[in-house]
Write a structure and sequence with these properties.
single chain, Rossmann fold, alpha/beta
């Protein structure tokens, strides 16, 4: 089976490299998903059986500040991949990595059947991407929220934002398990415990300082990103060993 993974240089892509060791992980220069000709040429040269589309512009602030780029990358890029799969004569399996941020974050513990309502432009582009993927009859949309197994990149972390977080390696394993189970539609890959961003940050960075939304200025944030699942099992956040 020939697997294509987009976003291979990101946190999740790095872990997917381990889970799918023989996968194709093209750089942006090798495959610009926002360029339709690039996408179709790449598929002509490679006999793809499985697409795991994790590539995206993910920063909330960058997406707000450059909406055209966010649309081109997150929506048009997804649309281009969907169109090449639809045009193919092969039965290509398609996995789209979405986000818990498609929900408004006002209540939390959203299920696959809950109604999305994005709070910011990044989340809107990911939801629009989901609608593109739904054009494929047997696609898989995976919503999740995760961070890297690294030192927290900021001096502070929110005590009043929540999620059912996993580390990227746990999400990668979950993707493989759901994909192998041949599920279709929307599936939430989630941790089994709702925790604050501050609690999450302290796992890797014990000296991180607390903050609240009152200390923040910027685009609207999804305050409660916690997900529930009606279709799959829940995962425990893995033990952490900080590498020097």
């Amino acid at each position: 089976m020939v697997t294509l993974i987009t976003g291979g240089s990101g946190a999740l892509g790095t872990q997917l490299r381990i889970i799918y060791p023989n996968a194709l992980l093209p750089t942006h220069k090798e495959l610009d998903v926002g360029n339709k000709n690039d996408v179709f040429e790449f598929f002509k040269k490679n006999d793809i059986d499985l697409v795991i589309h994790g590539g995206a512009l993910t920063g909330i602030r960058p997406c707000e500040e450059n909406k055209p780029l966010a649309m081109q990358t997150n929506v048009e890029g997804t649309k281009n991949l969907v169109e090449v799969v639809l045009a193919s004569k092969k039965d290509i399996q398609f996995v789209y990595v979405s986000t818990a941020c498609v929900f408004d974050g006002h209540t939390g513990m959203y299920k696959e059947s809950s109604i999305p309502y994005p709070e910011n432009f990044y989340a809107l582009t990911k939801l629009l991407g989901e609608y593109e993927v739904k054009k494929l009859p047997e696609s898989l949309i995976l919503r999740t929220n995760f961070v890297t197994k690294e030192k927290w990149p900021h001096p502070k972390a929110f005590t009043d934002r929540f999620g059912t977080y996993l580390f990227a390696d746990g999400v990668a394993k979950g993707i493989k398990e759901v994909q192998k189970a041949n599920l279709h539609g929307i599936v939430h890959v989630v941790g089994d415990k709702k925790i604050s961003v501050f609690e999450l940050a302290k796992i890797t960075t014990p000296d991180v300082q607390p903050m609240t939304i009152n200390d923040y200025s910027g685009p609207p944030l999804t305050m409660d990103m916690s997900l529930d699942t009606e279709r799959w099992k829940k995962y425990k956040i893995s033990n952490f060993n900080l590498k020097n």
